[in-house]
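Appendix B. Extra example for self-study. Work through it before the problem class; the solution is given directly after the inputs so you can check yourself.
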Amino acid sequence: MPPHPAGSPSGSLAAGLAGGTQGPGRLRPLLGTVLTALADGATARGGPLPAGGPEAVARRVREACTPVLPDTGTGAEEALRTLVRALAEGAADPADPRCTAHLQCPPLAAAVAADLAAGVLNPSLDSWDQAPSATALEAETTAVLAALVYPHQGPGSQGPVHHAPDALITTGGTESNQLALLLAREHAAHPPLQVVCGANAHHSIHRAAWLLGLPEPVTVDTPAGIVDPGELARTLEHLPRRSTLVVATAGTTDTGAIDPLPQIGRIAEAYGAALHIDAAYGGPLLFSDREAPKLDGLTAAASVTLDLHKLGWQPVAAGLLAVPDTAALRPLDHRADYLNAADDTEAGMPDVLGRSLRTSRRPDVLKIAVTLRALGRDGIGRLVDTVCDQAHTFADLIEQEPGLTLHRRPAISTVLFRPADATDHQVAAIRRTLLDQGRAVLGRARADGRLWLKATLLNPATRPEDLQQLLDLITSAPRTEGTTDR
Amino acid sequence: MPPHPAGSPSGSLAAGLAGGTQGPGRLRPLLGTVLTALADGATARGGPLPAGGPEAVARRVREACTPVLPDTGTGAEEALRTLVRALAEGAADPADPRCTAHLQCPPLAAAVAADLAAGVLNPSLDSWDQAPSATALEAETTAVLAALVYPHQGPGSQGPVHHAPDALITTGGTESNQLALLLAREHAAHPPLQVVCGANAHHSIHRAAWLLGLPEPVTVDTPAGIVDPGELARTLEHLPRRSTLVVATAGTTDTGAIDPLPQIGRIAEAYGAALHIDAAYGGPLLFSDREAPKLDGLTAAASVTLDLHKLGWQPVAAGLLAVPDTAALRPLDHRADYLNAADDTEAGMPDVLGRSLRTSRRPDVLKIAVTLRALGRDGIGRLVDTVCDQAHTFADLIEQEPGLTLHRRPAISTVLFRPADATDHQVAAIRRTLLDQGRAVLGRARADGRLWLKATLLNPATRPEDLQQLLDLITSAPRTEGTTDR
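Solution. Structure tokens for the complete assembly:
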């Protein structure tokens, strides 16, 4: 019955399961192969990303991975060596200080190592009997994270229901925002729910409204990069009377700016609107005593998005949606007899199907829990402080450079800047040239009517000299494609 | 600037990034800790799942993981040792032959090892400059998997558009089904889209319709466990004239049954309805020359769901949604200037934002690609054949056991059975007792008006004697709680 236990490469692999008492012994040599391939690939790349641009990268990957599905397998060792090396050689590695475009963090080794165990055991968080310990670990961990967001809502009971802050683990801010809008849709007394957000809100707010069949969000202009409370009030004043959800942002994607949360909370309340705060980026400032006050006003929100794969140093996915009371999650309650039959639930088996819209669900909680315990609140807070400090250092360096213009002092760890005399086309071309040459990964953002280069500092190991080298790449970059723009 | 490079445990961890050329060296000892903790946990568990039931498991996990967020960290080694061991000791490990309730497969070591590299490099598939090689690897791999589903639709061009089968990688069948309904909603000429499915369809169809703001699906009774074509035709005949999506299932959750796909395809076409086939479970039968004919009729579908974390031996998540033509995915096109600005796309940077509703997105493609290459089509096909053979062996053993009743010969690898003279309450109690004792994880399903025990055979290493031992647990189980039922 055990298929081809030895012999052909694919046969020997067939018996190679990761789990059980024998799995770790099978994994050990394969993990060695992966680590070697990662190191070889990083050395071959020799920089933050591969040189040559999209076509060259695609060609090299195609050469490495063809045939994708051979008739006869090449065996685990060969496949891992070839494909992991190709992935590493062609990666934009956020652990390189010159890879600093996006909210894509370099993950901690501890988090990545923990995530291995999630794959080995493959618990699926859609029923207790697929994930006994993972269910419990998720409950403990989300309760603590929710209490970090909503510290004043202590646990309590009303009748048979236990009231306490709670959090769902998601694939990221986008799913968290989608769930937030869904919960608001279901709680709406006067449907259809109208979402109101700043022009600075994440694109996922608009996409979620479309997905959920809601009206297009009403957008408040944000010329200063943050929602103006007076402008928000005027917008709410003129809306038809129906259920409204105001969405504020704590850490915009373009500049890292934080909307004035306390004022927005008061205005939303005054107009009877619910409030969701997308703190995907800024939320983990809560780990830092120094930075946490920037999030004052957070607890007024009916729901808060945060991502630990941004300021939190987790590999994707590690999103969260926090709510002040478990009862707010009730619209997600769902029954599927094979997963949470009523008599099983009555007999004491935890019902976890209502903790996600997914069914099969990987325990992303494990890497999060390992990180929280390994670093502690102080340790994570210090990492947060470090990248915020880096952003100020970077802004200082830009201000000291006559050929560069700084957009604004950083709110979190995002810095916008540009060559003082460049056109928008030249700015875009500089970014693409550095990408094509494999020299730097910088982002782009439009603010105050101009295009800027964007650096999002998320690498705690980056040194001041790395930041200076990044700037030197810009100041020494040749100008091209500058004729057709302002 | 580098924070606390040495000294306190959390300080030493702060510098411990998984990426770059130094990451593999940092990871090696941590992975050793994880493997040891996994082996220790599995040994301590000593069976398919922990004994004691939900409360005892929760208590042990709570003891291990408290405090979840200490002020000062315990360091990576301690956190990994403690939490990975707790997770393993409290896991329902699908690599144990007695853990056979759900479509939760025991992952291959090669797939799990590959997934480690995804975490280390942390490419995020929402823009090319976060994932150069991962973008290319995903394109190559999904094209091959889509061609497996739609072999007759070769690549071709009409004007500037390249037409070929395509597939999206999802978090699982639930997200795939959700996307399928969303695509159908957006393609609907006469909205609102009406979904029509069998009573045997996965609960995610109903949940997706709710999420998307669609009318409640019209459900066709399936007393035989599969959709009856005549019944479907009568249902479609009586629907109001508007856009309709018929959903068929290839591998139901309860019994593994496959709807009569060719007839359903003809009826859908005759009534002008679109067809989606949820082959989350059955889809990978395509890897086996022997089993693939069970899926005849698949290519008539506008979209097909399949999960490689079921028959495919991947850790969650490894879902797919295949379509016969890339153009079908156009409703997902989406622009966010920081990720796919028009001038970057024109300059040749691949636009990947339309390949998911998520934004940050982990490269689940890597483990899939490593598995396809390592095993080849033959190797995966043999694994498929093996578990299907096991199911027949298991059915044989049940038929030979006078005290047990077999529901039906298996369609894929799911087998329903029950003690011949037990009440439904007794069946449910037997399952819970085995769970509480930590002796077996069996599923449950209702069919032909009765409750059955369910075994879903997905472990290629399971031997006939393991199957006999599983049956012995049932035949020797004491009967309890049987007084109030039929």
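Self-check: Residues 312 and 384 of chain B are 8 Å apart (CA to CA). If your reasoning did not lead you there, revisit section 3.
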